[in-house]
Amino acid sequence: xxxxxxxxxxxxxxxxxxxxxxxxxxxxxxxxxxxxxxxxxxxxxxxxxxxxxxxxxxxxxxxxxxxxxxxxxxxxxxxxxxxxxxxxxxxxxxxxxxxxxxxx
Length: 104
What we know:
With about 100 residues, this protein is mostly beta strands. Helices cover about 0% and strands about 45% of the residues. It has a single domain (about 5-100), classed as Rieske Iron-sulfur Protein (3-layer Sandwich).
């Protein structure tokens, strides 16, 4: 394993079609499990004070529970207003049932 990676969690800690919040260093991240495919985004909504890991997942989108805006989990793209700015995504690296991202 590369030392340029940040460990986030074990894959088993992210429920299927679920999301959990991970805080590592100064990053607040959302880690998603879409039927065994893992994705990582910033956890703060770009529109307001909402926390995405508190929202609902449907059809590969996460809905912010604050204003109801939605983002594509895979790309970070805005799907539904009032959000206008995409969320930052990170490539999930899976090794030995552990989830990492590259250091920034």
